[in-house]
Design a protein that fits this description.
- There is one protein chain.
- The protein has two domains: 5-171 and 357-377, Glycogen Phosphorylase B (Rossmann fold, 3-Layer(aba) Sandwich), CATH 3.40.50; 174-355, Glycogen Phosphorylase B (Rossmann fold).
- It is built from 14 helices and 13 strands.
- It has helices at residues 21-27, 72-85, 95-108, 126-135, 147-155, 174-180, 184-191, 212-220, 240-249, 286-293, 304-313, 323-335, 338-355, 358-377; strands spanning 5-13, 34-42, 56-59, 89-93, 112-117, 140-144, 165-167, 198-203, 229-234, 256-258, 274-277, 298-301, 316-318.
- Strands 3-2-1-4-5-6-7 form a seven-stranded parallel sheet. Strands 10-9-8-11-12-13 form a six-stranded parallel sheet, with helices on both faces.
Length: 378
């Protein structure tokens, strides 16, 4: 295909940050070859918040209610916009943008359409599967952001097959991550953690689905045996009061640290000795990848989105929601020699570089677009 390729990247809501993978797709599309427009169905940046790297951003400003049910007004507005712009490629992230473009492209005939699914469960409803089977056309490809997501898509009965569904792993900018990270003792000093402690660390919002209460309960089972062990949780949210109550109930003040929200929290990961992800549900486990970038042993729950990564990187796995089983895994980490811990962290880091490097991520999307346009132009 000659000339500049016009790409629409459509997202459900505004959420632009340093680790935003939609922004990484843009960086993989050279500006001299691609003109990228980022569209957000809901939300827009507040003053001082980052904007997309795209050549242009469009904030549709739809209300939540206007995107439910038949969504006729929203569909009509989006249709008129796409018809006027004459895009060559559309990349729709998550279920709602993908579903809306599948409907509209029956008329728009955009040559190359890519739906990116970031989690598991969007096609659990039978009517969604029936609709997808009806709307899916040969010019669509569906991307699962991990092995678990791709396997889910292939098995959900929505018409996704090995021929139209592929896996492009979530990724992080490893070079950037390592350049931000403080040395271990510097990170501990910044976080107020004792230099001699053994620290199990995690990063995530303080909300029930992240499973932090499971980590506190598990730690309480072994804290008396390992007086040097501590837990550090970076994040903020509505579960703080519940976590503070559990810490007090178990007498873990000074042992479990709720450190609040930190900008670019990955800069502190080398202040941890091991990275724990006790989530009950997770779509994009980027925090786990950030833990690997610190050359740390990693352990996490057996939910689908984590289990496949932990299996592939040699991490440790426990049954979600079972603090006693998590306590066993914490003991295993504590029993390792410093050399064995370093080797386990090195294996996780090697896997990260092999499977989740952002350079590969950008290239895979570029190659997918080019392949689809070549096939469509034959």
């Amino acid at each position: 295909m000659s000339g500049v390729i016009k790409v629409l990247q459509l997202q459900a809501r505004y959420n632009v940050n340093a680790s935003d993978l939609a922004e990484q797709v843009i960086q993989g599309l050279p500006a001299e070859r691609y003109e990228v427009v980022t569209g957000f169905l809901r939300g827009r940046p507040e003053a001082g918040e980052p904007e997309s790297r795209a050549a242009r951003s469009v904030y549709f400003g739809f209300s939540q209610s206007s995107l439910k049910g038949l969504r006729l007004r929203a569909l009509w507005r989006l249709y008129r916009f796409c018809r006027a712009e004459r895009f060559d490629v559309v990349i729709a992230h998550r279920f709602k943008p993908m579903n809306m473009l599948m409907i509209l492209n029956l008329l728009l005939k955009i040559p190359a359409c890519i739906g990116v699914q970031h989690g598991i469960g969007d096609f659990d409803r039978r009517y969604r599967c029936r609709e997808a089977r009806t709307l899916l056309r040969p010019n669509w490809r569906v991307v699962g952001v991990s092995r678990a997501v791709r396997d889910y898509l292939l098995g959900c009965g929505a018409g996704f097959t090995p021929g139209n569904t592929l896996q492009i792993n979530n990724a992080i900018d490893i070079v950037r991550a390592e350049s931000l990270q403080h040395a271990p003792q510097q990170a501990r000093q910044a976080l107020g953690l004792a230099p001699e402690a053994f620290v199990f660390g995690t990063i995530g919002r303080l909300v029930p689905v992240k499973g932090h209460i499971q980590l506190v309960e598990a730690f309480a089972m072994l804290a008396g045996e390992f007086p040097q062990a501590q837990v550090a949780i970076i994040g903020e949210g509505r579960s703080r009061a519940e976590l503070e109550a559990a810490i007090a109930r178990h007498g873990l003040q000074g042992r479990v640290h709720l450190l609040g929200e930190k900008a670019d929290a990955l800069q502190y990961v080398r202040g941890f000795d091991a990275f724990v992800m006790p989530s009950l549900s997770e779509g994009l486990p980027l925090a786990l990848l950030e833990g690997m970038s610190g050359h740390l042993p990693v352990l996490g729950s057996d939910i689908d989105s984590l289990r496949s990564i932990l299996e592939d990187c040699g991490g440790r796995i426990f049954t979600s929601g079972r603090p006693a089983e998590l306590a066993v895994r914490l003991r295993e980490i504590l029993a390792l020699t410093p050399q064995a811990r370093a080797e386990e962290g090195a294996r996780a880091y090697e896997y990260l570089c092999r499977a989740h490097a952002v350079e590969d991520f950008r290239r895979y999307y570029r190659e997918l677009i080019e392949q689809m346009l070549e096939v469509g132009g034959e």
